[in-house]
């Protein structure tokens, strides 16, 4: 029997969907060894942090959080000498032993390439009463071969690639996730099939750049084949993240008009509207190329919702550059824009670029963009008022227990009154028609139409 049997653990997950998925694998693995997941750290003998270092704020927060649980007593009845603290994910990968030097009460450090070793490292650290640090340069296996414990039984992440080859000059991901590797098409489709058999209704295909899927295996990108293969499993909803504009092909775009289960929502990070900045970022497309992609996507799927990521204050960004970004955001009509202030990441090429723009100027640019984004999201949502949308119900609303909440095909949050006498458990994970009465900036609300 594993020495982890009946031990309690809690998970803290930060960062992107890759981390969320890795956390599902970690929970699945630990539970398969008999450990029990609990919600709060007070009840946990083991705390696992799955970390992100995409921006500095994430780093700083982690240090504070790990330090803050130091003095919380172990749950009563535990035979451990102390709570086991494990740090994995991208900070684990980047810092390795340095984390133990900075935070001596940390017991295990693991990285992004060896999550399957966590149980063993943890058992050794418990038995020997000392630290374990292991990070690997590249993975021996795909973490997708591990058991998984899905947060929602009806929705699944399905990684099709790991790592990234793009080396955008601001970005740490290629250094902490390694080179891009694709799973075989057969593997991906087989997993999709088994997810569907297991009751999954929505699959989100994951990769840092899903559009370059297959280049390492087949010599050419074959993301369109993935979409067709997964669509043929009959899963009700397919989404994917993330797309790189330089690799989004006409073949993939056309599928938005062909595959009924490919949802009408596309996240296409543009980062900047200035060609000069895009070049300095090593994005390898121009703002015009990006606009052309949007036109093509809208030609095949006029009702599609678009979202994007923007970095404000990249080194050397002038007022004109920012204006180009602002104008682009305004003209595209996004439903959602994730806006970030540039954060210098040690070891990336941009960290060496001269950065003289005052903080206040960047902050003001950021705020004006955030205002624009809100207006744009509000305007985009108005088109849904009066329409009936299929909503995948996830649970009751956090604010009001008499309301249920879910997502539309366009990935907009929808709230609706829970029908009289209906238990939420009966609706969770089902797709129901909702007539939209009200369209706000970040959500829609309406009434479930009973058939
Ligand atoms: N692979 C994905 C995104 C990964 S990171 C893609 O290329 O789209 C998510 C977002 O974080 C990026 O799109 C970018 O907008 C932002 N980001 C990455 N590095 C950053 C940095 N150093 N400072 C600020 N934002 C950053
Ligand atoms: Fe980072 Fe660029 Fe790779 Fe995205 S495509 S993960 S932004 S290097
Ligand atoms: Fe963060 Fe790592 Fe994802 S740095 S954004 S968790 S790949």
Short key terms for the protein model shown above:
Rossmann fold, Transcription Regulator spoIIAA, binds iron/sulfur cluster, five-stranded mixed barrel, 451 residues, six-stranded parallel β-sheet, binds FE3-S4 cluster, alpha/beta, globular, binds S-adenosyl-L-homocysteine
Characterise the protein shown here.
With 451 residues, the chain is an alpha/beta fold. It folds into 4 domains: 8-134, Rossmann fold (3-Layer(aba) Sandwich), CATH 3.40.50; 150-263, Transcription Regulator spoIIAA; 292-383, 2-Layer Sandwich (Transcription Regulator spoIIAA), CATH 3.30.750.200; 385-448, OB fold (Dihydrolipoamide Acetyltransferase, E2P) (Beta Barrel), CATH 2.40.50.140. It is 34% helix and 21% strand. The chain has 15 helices and 19 strands. The chain has helices at residues 17-32, 56-68, 89-95, 97-102, 118-128, 173-177, 185-197, 215-218, 223-231, 250-255, 275-280, 287-300, 319-332, 359-382, 424-427; strands at 8-13, 36-37, 46-51, 84-88, 108-110, 132-134, 155-159, 161-162, 181-182, 202-206, 237-241, 265-267, 305-312, 336-341, 388-396, 403-407, 413-417, 431-439, 443-448. The strands form 5 sheets. Strands 2-1-3-4-5-6 form a 6-stranded parallel β-sheet, sandwiched between helices. It has a 5-stranded mixed beta barrel with strand order 15-16-17-19-18. A 3-stranded parallel β-sheet has the order 7-10-11, sandwiched between helices. A hairpin with a 5-residue loop joins strand 16 (403-407) and strand 17 (413-417). Helix 13 (319-332) packs parallel to helix 14. The longest helix has 24 residues, at 359-382. The radius of gyration is 23 Å and the shape is globular. The relative contact order is 0.08. The model has no long low-confidence stretch (mean pLDDT 95). The site of FE3-S4 cluster has 13 residues, from helix 1, helix 3 and helix 6. Iron/sulfur cluster (SF4) binds next to helix 6. Residues 382-450 form the TRAM domain. Residues 150-379 form the Radical SAM core domain. One of its GO terms (cellular component) is cytosol.
